[in-house]
Design goal:
Largest sheet: 2 strands, antiparallel
Order of helices and strands: EEHHHHHEEHHHHHHHHHHHH
Oligomer: single chain
Helix content: 55-70%
Length: about 350
């Protein structure tokens, strides 16, 4: 059933247009063939079809004559040449009324005269309109040319390839279509396409993928251990201040953990710990001795010295700090507790 509306007009109004417009197309066809006939008369086709000039004749002269004719008509040389070729391929009695000049031009590429004349007389079925007729797409399809409106998958793919010949256009199209899960699934199933995508990934993209895979600390540690065995990787890592400091800190912590375990778990370690404790005791006694000795030398020098208010204030602060430290030493010696509270830490920092 024909549609009741075509575009923005009714079917009835459309039928009023089409009859007159078909007559206009017929007039256009006659005009185009007439121009072709005149161009053919100006420069007849060569016996071999015009691919090469005839003996003693310059092909450039043919184009020169046709260029003059085209310029006088306001047409391009290629248009006049196409009209001339169509007129040659379709003698007057073989031209089909109701078939556009464009279809005649397309079917003119059929080299055999008999086949060409029989073909135009037997139009194919237009599936869209459900009638037998020639359209430019059906004519192109018949002679193996690309249709203006592709219908099959290969035709659509070929049309997209033509439009995506520019790399930027192709990249944008690929980005857009790969956002469809079904399309992405089909693409990664193609080994070549998948490998090309993987190869084209930037360092940033690859880093993002790796980060997603190593969220687990155990996995991250194993990967880091493996890749740091490569000298080039290790040299790049130590060039990063943050990474290098983290590695150094981890080494220090590990060494301390190993030393603590050695002291706790082995007889030699316990002996070393005892020696270290003796050294620590001697260090503390030495610190007290140096303090007393320094004070014994310095305090007598204050004889007849009158300190200013600011100097007395500074000295009082430092004496208070010394008293707090002495109390801390006594507490540590009596209880073994060496932890300091916030107030003590603040005083030791000089705050």
């Amino acid at each position: 059933m024909p549609t009741a509306v075509i575009g923005h007009i009714t079917r009835e109004r459309y039928e009023q247009f089409i009859g007159a417009d078909r007559e206009l197309v017929g007039q256009m066809q006659r005009i185009q063939f007439t121009i072709g006939d005149h161009a053919l008369e100006i420069e007849p086709m060569q016996p071999n079809g015009g691919a090469h000039p005839a003996a003693g004749e310059d092909l450039g002269g043919v184009d020169a004559s046709l260029q003059v004719y085209a310029d006088d008509l306001g047409l391009s040389l290629s248009t006049v040449r196409n009209y001339r070729f169509a007129a040659h391929r379709w003698p007057g009695e073989r031209r089909r009324h109701g078939v556009s000049h464009k279809v005649h031009c397309i079917l003119a590429s059929i080299p055999d005269d008999t086949e060409r004349f029989e073909t135009i007389a037997a139009p194919p079925l237009d599936e869209r309109a459900k009638v037998r007729r020639w359209t430019t797409d059906l004519a192109k399809k018949h002679v193996g040319q690309r249709p203006d409106h592709p219908e099959t998958v290969p035709q659509k793919v070929a049309a997209i390839h033509r439009l995506a010949d520019d790399d930027e256009v192709a990249a944008q199209v690929a980005t857009d279509v790969l956002r469809r899960p079904a399309v992405a699934a089909k693409v990664v199933a193609d080994d070549t396409a998948r490998h090309m995508v993987n190869k084209a990934q930037t360092t940033q993209h690859k880093t993002e993928v790796v980060h997603d895979l190593i969220e687990d600390d155990t996995v991250a540690a194993q990967v880091a251990s493996d890749v740091l065995r490569r000298p080039e990787v290790a040299s790049r890592v130590v060039a990063d201040d943050t990474a290098r400091h983290a590695v150094n800190r981890a080494q220090t912590d590990r060494s301390q953990q190993q030393a603590d375990a050695f002291r706790r778990q082995t007889p030699a370690g316990r002996a070393v710990r005892k020696i270290e404790r003796t050294e620590e005791f001697l260090d503390l006694v030495g610190a007290c001795h140096r303090f007393v000795s320094a004070c014994g030398k310095t305090v007598p020098q204050l004889r007849d010295r009158h300190l200013s208010d600011d100097e007395r204030a500074v000295l009082a602060q430092n004496v208070a700090r010394c008293r707090v430290v002495l109390d801390w030493i006594e507490t540590a010696a009596e209880t073994g507790e060496v932890d300091m509270d916030e107030e003590l830490a603040r005083i030791l920092r000089g705050e």
